[in-house]
From TrEMBL:
Pfam hit, one: DUF223
Protein's organism: Microthlaspi erraticum
Listed name of the protein: Replication protein A 70 kDa DNA-binding subunit B/D first OB fold domain-containing protein
Domain Replication protein A 70 kDa DNA-binding subunit B/D first OB fold, chain residue ranges per copy: 12-110
Extent of the signal sequence: none
InterPro entries: NA-bd_OB-fold, RFA1B/D_OB_1st
Gene3D superfamilies associated with the record: Nucleic acid-binding proteins
Amino acid sequence: MVMVNAMPTTLCKNMKPFKTGWRIQVKILHLWKQYVTTSGETIEMILCDVEGNKIHTSVRKQDVKQYERYLEVGTWKFIQNFTVAHATDHYRTTNIPFKLAFIKESFVTPSDNLSDGNYLMLVNFKQIHEGQIKECILIGM
């Protein structure tokens, strides 16, 4: 993809809805394809910034071919121009109450490796057993 101007990056926890001019530097922690009868096959990802803030991200069916070759688990990327929307509890996979969605104008470019960390959010089994953890948030044990 075309290189973009070096506008400042924003941490995932500081992004808010109703703006598309964000630029983030993130590691792709998880990536999977999902098929939904109403919207077709999408790419779903969990991205993480250098502080460990994770956010769920989607690439719509019509944009999958444009972006899939640039997305690889474990790599750091700059991502620019995307939408930020409220994540509903039923589909919320991270603590951040928002979800990102790629648009036609999104850019994905390589970034230096900022950390080899896996950014797991570990909880103990007792918390899970006692129902102290939100079921809609991805966790590790």
